[in-house]
Amino acid sequence: QADGPAEVQPRTDDRGQSVVRLQGHAPNHVRSGSDPRRMSDRWRWLHLVVRQRELSMECHAVEAGANFNFGNLGATVYAYSGEGLGSTGFARDGFDTTGEGRDSDGGYVQGTYVIPSGTKLGVAYGVSNLDPTAADRTNSVNLVEENKRMTVGAYHPLTKHLNLVAEYSSMESSSMLSTAADNESDILSVGAILFF
Fold first, then answer.
1. Of 22, 137, 139, 186, which is least surrounded by CB within 10 A?
2. With left for phi above 0 and alpha for psi between -120 and 50, is residue 51 left, alpha or beta?
């Protein structure tokens, strides 16, 4: 594995094997081997031989959402489903050690109501799932399988550009590993939002 920027150049050798030539900054413990195209002690060519494996991985996803307003009432719904998307960040933990993409899905619903004083009251619930692959089950991988969060809040406009905010959130995360304990947290936040 090379540190820093790298250029990957796949090709096929005389024996029909897929060979990846990786140019990058190699750590000190990596030997440069017998390749005559050594660039320096800090820059080397690394050759990796990968047999009967595809070198590309792809992410696929679909999503849909809608927002509705009826007088003082507001509602939002959103859902997604995909493969290789990962969890908590794009493509993070999206693939297992064999290169197979993990299926994921989730979404959220939100409802709000504006009371006569102008304060908006809201409640929202969201969930995100990351399904383990066969390799994950075999290797007892300990990754987050499900994140859930419920939030209730009050939002009061002091001016056109300044809102006071109070929110309470309850969060729960569960692991792919059945023996791992769930993580739960409760968050209370008070503050202000400045609009430009």
1. 186
2. beta
